[in-house]
Amino acid sequence: MNKLEFLKNEIAKLPPSMLVEVEGFVRKKKKEMKSRQKPSSLLSDLAECAIEDDLPVDLAKQHDHYLYGTPKK
User: Buried b vs exposed e over 16-55: b needs ≥16 C-beta within 10 Å?
Assistant: First the structure.
């Protein structure tokens, strides 16, 4: 039995409530695989963090305000 057949058999044995978790795991792994295929750069890594961390959209223009508390321009 190869790995694919093994995984299919094991997934078939899971209760339906766990299939949502398996689906989430598979989607996450597919997303990671896609991101590995693209050439990574520091800028793209930072942009990804900004999206994930819900940083303000005007962070680049207003960085002094966010870092040091100066009034916004």
Answer: eeeeeeeeeeeeeeeeeeeeeeeeeeeeeeeeeeeeeeee
